[in-house]
Amino acid sequence: MQKVLFILPTACVGLAAALHATAYLHGEARRHQPRFWTFFALTLAAMLGVVLSPDKLTFLLAWEAMGLASAGLVAFENEDRDARKATWIYLLACHAGACALMLAGVLLNRPDAAWGAFLCAVVGFGLKIGFPPFHVWLPEAHPAAPAPASAVMSGAMIPLGFYGLWRFVLDPQAGFALTPGMGWTVLLLGAAGALGGILFALPQTNLKKLLAFSSVENMGVIALGLGLALLAQDAPGDVAALAGAGAFVHVLNHAFLKGGLFLGAGSVLRQTGTLNQDQLGGLMKRLPFTGTLFTLNALGLAGLPPLNGFLGEFLIYAAAFRAVKSGAPALVGAGFLVLAALALTGGLAAAAYCKAIGATFLGEPRSEAAAQAVETPRRMWIAQLALFLLSFAMIPGTVHVAHVLTDGASTPLLVPCAALGGAVLVLVGALLLARRLSPRGTVKPSCPTWDCGYHAPTARMAYTATAFTQPLQDLFRPVLHARTHVIPFKGSQYDASDAALVTETDDRALAGFWRPLFTFVARVFQRAHLLQNGSLHLYILLVLVALLALLALAFA
């Protein structure tokens, strides 16, 4: 059953992204399109190979092929310096993960190296999943790759890391001896990913970068469910089954909804030429289908009822409440951690998606490109619609999956929620249809409302994406370390167009850990490079010193 849960997102998101790409790539040079379709097909084939591989060696080969093929998609705009930088970071992450997985495969054969094998597997698969601090490639690769490629990579590829963890480490049938400490490791990584991902999604003005950090958050939610399931696997009750069901259901929810969001972001980029939310606005009137579907997918991924994203997180909530109710100290602590992390993550996710929807699609256009935008070709928004309908169709599927995994224990919880959600959606659809079919009356006269002396308000008076989340950025400033730059007035005091407030928020893992680490390593190798000066006498001296050291070690 686990293979089906990972094959389904690959096939569905891949087909929808391919349909979207036929219009997204329109206008690209003919020599570029075969390159995209070649790497796109190789990526999907490698992803299916990962799931269907019969043994560890085949799995590792398919895993490495998946990384190399998808790197070709990230480097599609290879003339762009940022795209080349993102490809380099992505290749480093892929190859480092493969090295860790090879070491994990060796240690899995040694019973006395269980913790070493587990940590190597967490690093190897965590580099693909985006566990902090291994997530730094996601915010770089997704904005660089074409939107259909980003939809596949975020919606279907990064959850394959959980498939690898489950297949070789977490699955009880794998024969791996799990300990409570391993469950706590997955749980804490999930909490850090969920909270950290959505916190750094809040200040992003690039729409695809916001969605990339949101992927880190959603992978954290899945890890919360899996970690709680691992801790409760030997406990009485259905805590483990509910948590595991919620995690696997959220894999499907994230695939369909996040895939649709990335396709929507690609439609915005194609029609306006920018993803900067501060330069957008007013697109709901100009791209009504794209804006409506983006809003529905965003609300579903934020976990708001009555959509299926709510049901997946509801299962994890139910497992956490039952863990608290169990009375076991470890489960009580884990349950409280899951509840706190999920609640805070859900609130911040709602704020982040409200910002994305409001700044991009509502209000008035803040640039000429946004004002002149028109709706995308039909097949682009049909691809988004297909993924949303798949998520909507998963409402009974969620009930069935949870019923199977929990032996019917979740049915009394989910059936009323699913029925109520379906009724609400049917009612909303009926009201929209009635409004559509109702006869149009005469146009009522309109006049500007009282506007405090501003007779003709402009788009500059509306909230931008940066301004909308500024209070939350100030609240979490000790974590985000955002930098604020004020551009003062330079011209007339009556013309505010030359003043601005600019905020920058760097990824703390990249700026505080990886960049200093690689800088230190580079300095070490630069000093070691002094030994390579071409002197034959120095080389002979080094050989003699090494030989004497080996002889001394042998005698010792």
Describe the fold and architecture.
By secondary structure, the chain is mainly α. The chain is 72% helix and 2% strand. It contains 23 helices and two strands. It has helices at residues 2-24, 33-52, 56-74, 81-107, 114-129, 138-144, 147-157, 160-170, 180-201, 207-231, 239-272, 283-286, 288-301, 308-326, 329-361, 368-371, 378-405, 411-437, 465-468, 470-475, 477-480, 508-528, 536-555; strands at residues 483-487, 500-504. It has a two-stranded antiparallel sheet with strand order 1-2. The radius of gyration is 26 Å and the shape is globular.
Q: State the share of residues found in helices, binned by percent.
A: over 70%
- By secondary-structure content and strand pairing, the structural class works out as mainly alpha
> What fraction strand?
under 5%
User: Would you identify the regions where 5 or more consecutive residues have pLDDT less than 50?
Assistant: none
Q: Give the CA-CA distance, first to last residue.
A: 57 Å
The average pLDDT is 83
Strand order across the largest sheet: 1-2
> Quick one: biggest sheet?
2 strands, antiparallel
- If helices are DSSP runs of H or I spanning 4 or more residues, what is the number of helices? 23
N-to-C order of helices and strands: HHHHHHHHHHHHHHHHHHHHHEEHH
Helix-strand blueprint:
Layout: H1 2-24, H2 33-52, H3 56-74, H4 81-107, H5 114-129, H6 138-144, H7 147-157, H8 160-170, H9 180-201, H10 207-231, H11 239-272, H12 283-286, H13 288-301, H14 308-326, H15 329-361, H16 368-371, H17 378-405, H18 411-437, H19 465-468, H20 470-475, H21 477-480, E1 483-487, E2 500-504, H22 508-528, H23 536-555
Antiparallel strand pairs: 1-2
